[in-house]
Amino acid sequence: MTTRIALDGVGGQGVRVIAGVMGALLARMGKEVTVLFDYDSSVRGSMSDAFLIFDDVPIANPVVEEADIMLKLADRGHLRISGRTVVTDLGLNVPGAEQIPFASLGSQHFGKELFGNMIALGRLLRLAAIDFDEEAIRESLPKRFVEENLAAIRFGYELTPETIASYAAAAPPSRFEMKDAATAPGGHTHGASVGMGSVVEAGESG
Amino acid sequence: MTRKLSQGNEAVFRGALAAGANYYAGYPISPSTEILNIASGHAAEHPEFGFLQAEDEIASANAIIGASLAGAKSFTATSGPGFSLMQEAVGYAQKVGVPCVFVNVQRVGPATGMPTMPGQGDIMQVKWGSTGDYTPLAFYPNGVEEAFRTTVAAFNAAEESRSPVVLLSDTFVAHLNEVVDLDAVAAETQPAPRMAPALAKHEGDARFFAGVLMYEAGPNAGEPATADADEYLRQFYDAKHRHLEVAARYALYEHGWNVEARTLLIAYGIVSRVAAPLREEVALFRPIRIHPMLTDELRSIAERYDEIVVAEANDGQYADMVELALHRPVKRVPLLGGRVSAEAVRAGLERVLAGGPSEPPIPPQPTEPGPRATLGVG
Hints:
The structure holds 2 protein chains of 2 kinds.
Chain A: E1 3-10, H1 15-28, E2 32-39, E3 47-55, E4 66-72, E5 82-89, E6 98-100, H2 102-110, H3 116-127, H4 134-140, H5 146-157, H6 161-170, H7 179-183
Parallel strand pairs in A: 1-4, 4-5, 5-6
Antiparallel strand pairs in A: 1-3, 2-3
Chain B: E1 4-7, H1 8-18, E2 23-26, H2 33-45, E3 50-53, H3 57-69, E4 74-78, H4 80-85, H5 87-96, E5 100-108, E6 114-118, H6 123-128, E7 137-139, H7 144-161, E8 164-170, H8 171-175, E9 176-180, H9 182-187, H10 229-249, E10 253-257, E11 263-266, H11 270-274, E12 283-287, E13 289-291, H12 295-302, E14 307-312, H13 317-326, E15 331-334, H14 342-353
Parallel strand pairs in B: 2-3, 2-4, 4-5, 5-8, 7-8, 11-12, 11-14, 14-15
Antiparallel strand pairs in B: 1-9, 5-6, 7-13, 10-12
Helix pairs in contact in B: 1-2, 1-7, 3-5
């Protein structure tokens, strides 16, 4: 069965890291996977999307145009596709979406807002019905902050609709957006357009 | 040997290594930069691999030519704007017969354009970008494993034809990650031996490298031939025939999907991947060897179909070539501005098959600031 996942965010949030770790994990589990990054040429603050598809057979079209699961860490409105299940950061106004306060959960439980991206990854794994294989996840993670990231992924994986509702009710209405992204007009900053290799590592403050 | 998630640009570099590449020069430009990054990391660990981050694309192109003339298997990677700067060097390498590989990871132009968006606007630049007549070879993969294989093909064809060969790619092929076992592919790779001897080892058999027409053999060998049409013809057709002969060994294409359909969709690179949801409705012809045109192959396939539609991320560059090759009208679906999606292909296909224009409906200027449009149907 084909599972199509779209991740929508802005540069600096870790969209690339979430998709990269999840793709590596699924590959390790023997799945066919495509991960495609779609981003604007500014490094921070402008659109950064990822399309992840996994299946038991090779995947033809790597672009997700109708998502089974869509994760929105920001919503600039540019990703004009629909999602059957939509998960957003708290405060994003997407009708019918499950809202999780990723930033404040990252900050409260792991000391940094950016761990919210690993909490989001955990939630994605749960929604995509992927078994929590600790060893495989550990090997798929970037080499820094492995234990912290693993714990944050587990935290996200173990969330339930009930705990999500109570965390959401208690959380401040902050968004999981990088501060420079949130303050720059239009979320646009002029960074270098080169150096795709230097993605922000998971759990590393940008 | 393990299957792992690998990126298109990474596969190009690894394919180059498997083909025997030992020199890289380049200047960073999205969406090709990973190739330069990986090359620099490789060179740091393997001193026998030559690496130069040059001051610009002009220097990069000339550096790989110099390395090739000195005996290396050399390559560079860039995108459309950089490839424009390299055109003088491309023509020189064609004239002098320098085997090397130019990787062009296309984005949306002209000029700086949309630096990270997928485009295919350099099909004609590859064919006619430099001055004068020449017969370029170019390949264009549509996935990660094929990026590896066609890179090897490009290096081998460069040696066999003694010419600069272009490997085309695009933002999405370059940044696509797929699960592949590149070690296994590498194990079955057969690199061509170095065929053009290095200048320094070329005693007794003069090699001319000024780029100006010289008598290379016969009683006038070593003299300028700058006003001799006979010598021009000898050299031009010698190179042309050699390139075509080599190209015939690499007549790479795919003909598939619903081959019984009445419409043949022609698409290459990433467009052939995103168009896959149309697999029940149309047949696909996907050229992998973009230049020289696969004229004979396409003619014999196209005659089975009532309609020929070319979907490409440019304003009909390959469609023009198809029309010339087939001597029949073809319909065009241009996917411009980076909007490379199945929805856009489907909408365009329905529009042109119903007799409508190739030009998509143009959205009105918004009245308020708002989100920028990328993928989707628009």
